Amino acid sequence: MSQILIKNAHVINPETELDEVIDIAINGSKIAGLGKSVSKDFKAKEVIDAKDHWVLPGLVDLSAYLREPGQENKTRIPFETYSAASAGITRICCMPEPLCAIDSGAMVKLIRSKVKKAGYSRVSVIGALSQHLKGEQLSHMGSLKYVGCVGLSQGHAPVKDLSTLRKAMEYAVTFDMPLFLHPIDHSLMITGGMHEGALSTRLGLNPIPVAAETAAMAQILTLVEQTQSPVHFCRLSSSDSMKMLKQAKDSGLPVTADVAAHQLFLTEMDVCDYNPLCHTVPPLRSERDRDALRQAASDGLIDAICSDHQPHEIDAKLAPFEETSPGISAFETLLPLTMRLVEEKVLSKTQAISYLTNKPAKLIRKRSGNIEVGRAADFSIYDPNEFWQLETEKMTSRGKNTPFSGWGFNGKTIKTFVRGKKVYDLNEGL
Amino acid sequence: MQLTADGKLKHFLTTEGIPPLLLEEILDRAEQFVSLPGKAQVKAPLLRGKTVMNLFFENSTRTRTTFELAAKRLSADLVNLDIRNSATSKGESLLDTIRNIEAMGCDMFVVRHSSSSAAHFIAKYCAPHISVINAGDGRHAHPTQAMLDMLTIRQHKPDFTPLKIAIVGDIKHSRVARSEIHALNTLCAGEIRVIAPITLMPNGIEDMGVKVYTNMEEGLKDLDVVIMLRLQHERMNTAQLPSVREYYARYGLTEERLKLAKPDAIVMHPGPVNRGVEIDSRVADGSQSVILQQVTNGVAVRMAVMSMAIASQASLAKEKGAS
Fold first, then answer.
1. In this structure, which topology does domain B143-290 adopt according to CATH?
2. What architecture is the B20-141+295-322 domain classified under in CATH?
3. Which residues of B8-24 are buried (b: 16+ CB within 10 A; e: fewer)?
4. pLDDT tens, position by position, A159-176
5. Which fold does the domain A58-363 belong to in CATH?
6. Partner-chain contact A320 B94, CB within 8 Å
7. Considering the entire predicted model, what is its pTM?
8. From the candidates A200, A317, A321, A325, which should be mutated to test the interface with B, based on the most B CB atoms within 10 A?
């Protein structure tokens, strides 16, 4: 049983609007006291002085692909849950993908047991919306809920038709399961493409219009209006989608949305030398779109920022652009990029942390991302003054596919705790 | 990436960004290689002892053959690899294929691939002593085709600046159109037009410095050069066009339509020609057509590019030896 006292910690906890320097007592897996509520006779076995450091609630990442079971050549659960811990992420939502469809209770149990055995960050499983993610037959949503899935998604795979999608939405409501949908119209979405515009024309890459997202979004919104089933839009990428989201929220539809951190920084221009590391789905869009996403984040229109972590083996990116696998290995840049938005005065400090903690936690209906007495002791210690440069060789993830190599960041996670247990320590290389 | 530090041609991947003097050097050199019909071929020894690998990941007869002839006329050893049917179909990655062929020893890759940027990719990852010539990558670039078209234009109309030139047809999927537009802009052509229905017109093409026309008659007015593109049959099935018949009716180059251009306008086509689809036989075989001259020039331009790339390698090697 761990009994830890963290002294002089600058705790920033958006959920309780806490932002001050206090002591934290941890007893076992729970937070036993904060500031004045730390009892005088609390006997700590370990005392950590967090002077000049921040203590942040454990980050909740709404989307990651852990690749196991099915694609062990890319990475395995222990490596990625450790990588998440090293980035201050204590809860990962693991997404279904065609080679690991997560459409049965057995699959969920397998993933959970591997996560437990690894013993780093927690994993919440998002199950498949349809069997084998084929978009035809509904998945066993009731059973998936029973084994602890926090939501359902079709990933990037298409649903056969609108009637199937509507039934899926209705059936999900039956079991009160949140839906995490990527708005993608597959007839407009050409694999291996990039944002449609003058640059895609010059580079001769397949153009993906903004309508590939907005047309699908409009269809989903129509169904939401009819069925009143809550839908979360995953990884919105365009200015027009933000307009539609605002309209939908203003008219009271039960919709929420997130944006991947890299979409708030990169644009189509980053693809200009066919950089396969900037091959993403949805594609990096124009500067205007990126600015609209930043504005939406600043206005509080979106509900979360996520990493959309997609680790790949080296070969997956060693090919001509359109033949490479899309995605970025992004755990380690989630917090640094989001904090950079604070430096660039897009977000306030509390807003930024909230987008990574209590807000995403609410979307999966968890009480994570909150430092409060009696809650699980999931948190990280963060040094806001540590300047570091991202080097791919030093990444903790097995996937080294990041376009942010060489970027400098202010602030680094130095220790991470899950259930009161230290699972990462920068200095010990735990 | 395609130029050496002192501005010589190392690879030829795209016409974009190549300085005008270098483009003109390619044309001047090619002019020397142009052979007169019926005259005996004299082999130039410029590539003696060099090995050229023709890597064709995609079908081609004309381009492959002209590269082959060009290499042979420069005394190179040439190997044709029809990769479509071998390595890649067995699951080998492009990079492994390149590394393996490299290990056999060679000095130049001529690459045709269905993915845009394939030639860039190979140039980036192959050994530093190898030159890469792009023989067409996806819908991105086909620089030697563009240069042989420039040569053909120059032979008829020596000054580019007053010329009105139109490219007609499937601009969206055409690497030839993109490479021609870059080359024409660099050579200061007076006016470049693209003519096509909107389904075959890529988004933002105006930014490349062209005027967009959707009406064939309007676009043809006062032209000095008409470049027709091949309409690929497979496009017909993907709702880009209703039918071949309608395309010919609206965009086919007929004798009547050609009259809208200047009387001394020349008609070009990169081939293979679809008679009765994009062009009337009477125009293709007519007095204004220079289609076969383009093919002849193709060998000369490829000889020029290959010899320049090998020469830049030699000067690089010399520098290394000196230092």
1. Rossmann fold (3.40.50)
2. 3-Layer(aba) Sandwich (3.40)
3. bbbbbbbbbebeeebbe
4. 999 999 999 999 999 999
5. TIM Barrel (3.20.20)
6. yes
7. 0.92
8. A321
